[in-house]
Write a structure and sequence with these properties.
Strand order of the largest sheet: 1-12-6-5-4-2-3
Number of domains: 2
Helix content: 40-55%
CATH superfamily of the largest domain: Response regulator
Structural class: alpha/beta
Shape: elongated
Radius of gyration: 20 Å
Number of helices: 14
CATH architecture of the largest domain: 3-Layer(aba) Sandwich
Order of helices and strands: HHEEHEHEHEHEHHEHEHEHEHEHEEH
Number of strands: 13
């Protein structure tokens, strides 16, 4: 199984972080930037999980679910990260005993209306469990009411509903959970990678502050919000003065990001010292624009992303990206499938199943790349 290959490839040093397990959401605590704290003000925990991410499938799983129907809604198939996620999710469900023909995965085409119709169809088809990556997290209340009303267990993935929505699940003891990582942590790690370089190196024009541009994902998405906020917060928490030169919405898209960064470089030129991208697809587009403009990452500009896509990892290894953050699609997809099994067997779940991100620089990028191949 791919998870076992991954575990075998990692060194002892990486086991404590790269395979940090999924678990119950911890209560916030007042702490430095690397520790989890109140949602709107402090950065989340950057601590090792107590258990490794590689977990055995629930004991009841093997061979028991061939007749169970699983409906999966993905916000958009063209998203690089969600392609990795849904592929791993389907393969792992099959390994647990679900029949391939009873696993249906739908492309929401980044349109909430389209996805809502798909959810209605799944309900009418009487699926046994739903796994949903919502187009808009703000639609979670409507989705939850519809699915719970139909008596179907629900596992949200990747795009987290807000805290009040999650509290509803707990208050009503519904079979609803969220599986994913805390985006505040990923943003913090992006900023820390820049801080770790040292102000003298990053502040290339010597004016005592860091000029940056930000390329955001979907403004409706909480991951985009937190990565944008906490990446910059890591710099200011380090005592650095910053200046935002541009902040644009790239909607997670490589081509759009290339256009936006090209425009920003044309407008601001060598003033831009750091490019923050909410995901790697946009970072890859940013890199194309940087190359076209004749700039060199690591020499006169710095670039960070999130997801640890293979191409991004290769860029980190060869120095054409400063760093990325590993968004562990393997651990998350397996945890989502395990949560579905727990609902089907009556074992139940916590209403939040969280995973840690991993900071990726030149020091560990090859190891991460080897682990996900």
């Amino acid at each position: 199984m791919k998870k076992k290959v991954l575990a075998a490839l990692l060194s002892v040093a990486m086991v404590a972080t790269l395979l940090a397990g999924c678990g119950k959401k911890e209560a916030p605590a007042e702490a430095p930037a690397e520790t989890e704290a109140p949602a709107e003000t402090e950065a989340p925990a950057d601590t090792d999980a107590e258990e490794p991410a590689e977990t055995e499938a629930p004991a009841e799983a093997a061979g028991d679910f061939a007749d169970k129907k699983v409906g999966v809604c993905i916000y958009q198939f063209s998203d690089n990260f969600m392609t990795l996620f849904r592929t791993e999710l389907e393969n792992y469900l099959i390994s647990l005993g679900f029949a391939k023909e009873n696993i249906t995965i739908q492309d929401g085409q980044n349109d909430q209306g389209t996805q809502s119709n798909q959810i209605d169809a799944f309900i009418n088809d009487k699926v046994d469990v739903l796994i949903i990556n919502p187009v808009n997290s703000s639609s979670a209340e409507t989705i939850t009411d519809k699915v719970v009303g139909a008596g179907i267990p629900l596992v949200y993935i990747n795009r987290e509903p807000d805290e009040s929505e999650e509290q509803r699940w707990a208050d009503n003891n519904w079979d609803v959970t969220y599986v994913g990582c805390d985006a505040r942590q990923s943003g913090t790690m992006q900023g820390e990678m820049i801080v770790d370089l040292g102000l003298e190196k990053v502040d290339m024009n010597g004016d005592g502050k860091v000029q940056y541009i930000m390329i955001e994902g979907d403004p409706e998405n909480v991951d985009a919000k937190y990565r944008t906020e906490f990446s910059v917060k890591a710099l200011t928490d380090a005592g650095w003065e910053v200046e935002e030169l541009d902040d644009q919405v790239g909607n997670w898209d490589q081509v759009k990001a290339q256009e936006l960064v090209s425009n920003a470089l044309g407008q601001h030129g060598e003033k831009i010292e750091v490019v923050f991208c909410n995901n790697d697809a946009m970072a890859l587009g940013a890199l194309q624009a940087i190359d076209t403009a004749g700039r060199k990452v690591g020499e006169d500009i710095f670039l960070v992303g999130v997801d640890a896509l293979s191409e991004a990892l290769e860029n980190v290894i060869n120095g054409t990206m400063t760093g990325t953050v590993f968004n562990d699609h393997i651990s998350q997809s397996h945890s989502a499938a395990d949560a579905a099994v727990n609902y089907l067997t009556g074992a139940g779940n916590e209403h939040y199943i969280g995973c840690d991100y991993v900071k990726v620089t030149t020091e560990n990028a090859q190891e991460v790349l080897d682990s996900v191949k």
